[in-house]
Amino acid sequence: MKEENCIFCKIADGEIPSKTIYEDEEFRVILDISPATKGHALIIPKEHYADLYQIPEETAAHAMKLAKKLASHMTKRLGCDGFNLVQNNGEAAGQTVFHFHMHLIPRYHDDGNQDKLCWNHLTLEPEELEDMFQKLVDID
Ligand code: AMP
Ligand code: ZN
User: Is 54 exposed, middle or buried (0-12, 13-18, 19+ CB in 10 A)?
Assistant: First the structure.
C-alpha cells in the first residue's frame, strides 16, 4: 500500500528521483539528502508503514538483514571507522518522515560528530529503576 503525499512512497516508487545505491522487490536504499556523515543512507521499504509499530515483523527482519549487508558493503567501499544504525519512531524520538526507514550512518574518527549518539543520562533512584523493571519484565 502507498500513502498519498508521502515523500518516501514517491521515492520508493521512483516517482521522485533519488541516489539509489541498492534496490530489490521490497526495499530501496538511497543516499540521505541531508547526511549526518559522508555516505549516510536510508533503507526504505517500498510499502508504506509509518513506523516500527506498523511494519510487519517479517519486513522488519528483512530490513535488518539488508542493514547488515550494506554495513559491510559501505564500510569496505568508504573505509569508515565505525557505523551507526538509527531508526526513529514518533516525533518525540526525532522522526520527521512518517514512512519507516532505517538510517545507515558510516562513522569516521574525524567526522565532526560526537563519538556516540547524544543523550543526557538520567540518575534514577533505586525505586524508580525498580519501577521501570516491574513495568517491563515479562513480555506478553
Ligand atoms: P527521520 O528524522 O528519522 O524521520 O529521518 C528522515 C531523513 O530523511 C532525514 O535524515 C532527511 O535528511 C532525509 N530526507 C528527507 N527528504 C529526503 C529526500 N527527498 N531524499 C533523501 N533524503 C531525504
Ligand atoms: Zn510512504
Answer: middle
Q: Which residue's CA is the nearest one to ligand 1's atom 19?
A: 33
Per-residue pLDDT, 115? 83
Name beta bridge partners: 83: 106
Judge whether 101 counts as a catalytic residue. yes
Instruction: With cut-offs at 50, 70 and 90, classify the pLDDT of residue 79.
Output: very high
> Which ligand is closest in space to the CA of residue 42?
1
Question: Which one of 40, 99, 101, 121 is the catalytic residue?
Answer: 101
State whether the beta carbon of 88 lies less than 6 angstroms from ligand 1.
yes
Specify the higher pLDDT residue, 66 or 4. 66
Three-state SS for 93?
helix
Cβ pair 27, 66 in contact under 8 A: yes
- Residue-wise pLDDT tens digits, 22-48: 999 999 999 999 999 999 999 999 999
Is 30 near ligand 1, meaning CB less than 6 Å away? yes
